[in-house]
Design goal:
mainly alpha, 88% helix, elongated
Length: 81
């Protein structure tokens, strides 16, 4: 019973990480717009570099969500044995 309770709690954390994905991806988009609007990007190369870095930062949240989903499925498979 305690193991299943842990799975349910971990499942709630997985749902939270999935729900925050659009927020994090939107934050990266807003950061690019803000940097562009304030004139902090002096060239197209700067903008391309910033876009790559912000995309990579957003993808870390995607990778974390995928990892947590797979971990949850692993725990469920252990509990069903």
């Amino acid at each position: 019973g305690l193991f299943w309770l842990g799975i349910v709690v971990f499942g709630l954390m997985v749902v939270f990480s999935i729900l925050t994905l659009p927020v994090e991806i939107g934050a990266s988009r807003r950061a690019l717009v803000m940097l562009r609007d304030t004139g902090m990007l002096s060239s197209r190369d700067d903008e391309a570099g910033v876009k790559r870095v912000l995309t990579a930062a957003a993808m870390t949240y995607v990778a974390a969500a995928v990892t947590s989903i797979l971990t949850l499925l692993y725990y469920i498979s252990i509990a069903r044995r």
